[in-house]
Amino acid sequence: FVFPSQFLPCAIILDVILMLGNSMQLTAVIGGLAYGLLFYPGNWPVIAPLHVPVEYNGMVMTLADLQGYHYVRTGTPEYIRMVEK
Questions:
Q1: Which tens digit of pLDDT belongs to each residue from 10-26?
Q2: Of 45, 4, 76, 39, which is closest to residue 68 (Cα–Cα)?
Q3: Domain map (residue ranges) of the chain
Q4: For the segment 34-64, what is each residue's pLDDT rounded down to a tens digit?
Q5: What confidence score (pLDDT) does residue 31 get?
Q6: Angle made by CA atoms 14, 17, 19, in degrees to the nearest 5
Q7: What share of the chain is helix, strand, coil (3-state, %, to 5)?
Q8: Helix (H, G, I), strand (E, B), or coil: what is residue 52?
Q9: Residue 75: helix, strand or coil by DSSP?
Q10: N- or C-end of the chain: fewer Cβ atoms within 10 A?
Q11: Where in 1-85 does DSSP place strands (E)?
């Protein structure tokens, strides 16, 4: 998942690095590193509740796995078999 609220803080960091360094190359290297380091921890509080264990039909799995189990993607063989019926 990508949450749009994460783009703004990362973009502000990129702008600050460009403003302080006044160099596109410095911004590309340091700003890209900062963007990547901030993006994952910024999304973690939103995604973390999906990693709690639940019991479903006698099996223990995470909520994320359970969502993937119920949401059949269009490129998977299961979906193709459903469409061909």
A1: 899 999 999 999 999 99
A2: 76
A3: 1-49, 52-85
A4: 998 988 888 888 888 888 999 998 999 999 8
A5: 94
A6: 105
A7: 75, 10, 20
A8: coil
A9: coil
A10: C
A11: 53-56, 59-62
